[in-house]
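Quick one: Phorbol-ester/DAG-type domain-containing protein from Linum tenue, structure tokens please.
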Amino acid sequence: MKYSEISHFSHPQHKLRYEFTEFPFKCDGCKEAGIGSRFRCSTCDFDLHQHCAVPSPYSLHHPFYTKCSFQFFSRPPGDVPRYCNACGRDVAGFLYHCRDCGFDLHPCCAKLPVVIDDGEVKLYLYRKVSSPCHRCGRKGRSWSYRSTCKKYNLHVACVKDMLVENWAGGGGGGSSRRFGTRIPTLKNTVNVQRKSKGKVKKCCEVAGLGVQFIVAAVLGDPTALIAGLVGILISKG
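--- reply ---
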């Protein structure tokens, strides 16, 4: 369901209006980066991911945790530091939490598409993969997107790390709300071995181009429109 304007408990002073932005922002709900669709109060410079502004009204169930029932929370429960089981990053704001199992998911991570498919590139989301990530070289750090040929893997956590690395310090003046406008080029994420031949090499090269869709999904807006926009910005990097 589409909303043009909403009232939200986290910002009772003003209503939030839906808008689409080409520039990255920090969500005041989950405290993670975002781009594309958001709900915003321009008066107060307050932003929410669409997934944070309009969470699932009932229990959320995820195919990776079939026995879990996730509930939306405005803050992490308890006094112990918590982390997202999808990306491994700290949970500092809005989240989905399973009371029985203790698992936590950022709202955008909870809504990551299981398959990213633009008609040519197809990447599948896995909870664990046996092959190392093409960015960090490690296994099992977080959920991963894997190519059809199963030779290209990229951690969701590594995508977030790359975003933070590229946007850190972009605001100036000590503001933690602002990011720079540079989208990571990610050119070095595809480490295709010279020995790779034929279909495997081609598959990895195509999957490398699909990184732009992973970036868009991690930022909370896995639509063709924002993915195309990110692709343009990546090419300019």
